[in-house]
Amino acid sequence: MKITFLAHASFLIETANKVRIITDPYQAGCYNNALGYQPINEPADIVLVSHDHADHNCLTDVSGNPKVINAPGDWTVQDIKITGINSYHDTEKGAARGKNIVFVIETDGLRIVHLGDLGHGLAESDYEKIRPVNVLLSPVGGFFTIDSKVATEMLNCLKPDITIPMHYKTSVLDFPIAKVEEFIKDKKNVKQINNSQIELSKDTLPKTPEIWVLKMARE
User: Fold this and answer.
1) CATH superfamily of the 2-214 domain
2) Which residues pair with 134 in a beta bridge?
3) In 3-state terms, what secondary structure has residue 19?
4) Which of 34, 128, 155, 157 is 20 to 30 A removed from 112 (C-alpha atoms)?
5) What is the pLDDT of residues 145-192, one digit of tens each?
6) Which helix or strand (DSSP H or E) is residue 148 part of?
7) For residue 210, what are the β-bridge partners?
8) If DSSP codes are grouped into helix, strand and coil, which group holds residue 139?
9) pLDDT by residue (tens digit) across 41-88?
10) Would you kindly state where each structural domain of the chain is located, as residue ranges?
């Protein structure tokens, strides 16, 4: 399996059978150009949309007539099992920013969890649905999502093999959120990956949990 960090909360996951999954594709230049990442312009077989905001739901740049999954539930697409778990974009049960979907993707013997714009801590019943986690794609910037403190608490509960932080401030993202350094500053086992793409299998997972900070392909 290959995972490419496109930018923001958008990843391209390519399975061993060449199925291409894109998570939360953003609209380049949205919010008066506050989001300055380059357009995605990638083909996909499946697109996962965690919620209906412009920096997470833009399908116009994605080619290939993909199957779009944007609701809670269970799906099997080819050999991929996808579970969408209802959650919220805030700490007020959606009153401030609406609902959010946590996606669990099972393929190639791995479980990848994309938290979308999760805005609150999870209940134990949610953790039970999500575990075990091989790769956790987690927002860490705060304000619109969970911050580094809540993300850290989540890591301690889920114990993913690999955590890849996302949805944080960069030089081309003018959102009032924290940089990734706020999340990793007090962490051990942090790896700075000088690439936007990683290749994984069950056999190559680290023996102890690690945080991998990837480059963004569209920054």
Assistant:
1) Ribonuclease Z/Hydroxyacylglutathione hydrolase-like (3.60.15.10)
2) none
3) coil
4) 34
5) 999 999 999 999 999 999 999 999 999 999 999 999 999 999 999 999
6) helix 148-158
7) 162
8) strand
9) 999 999 999 998 999 999 999 999 999 999 999 999 999 999 999 998
10) 2-214
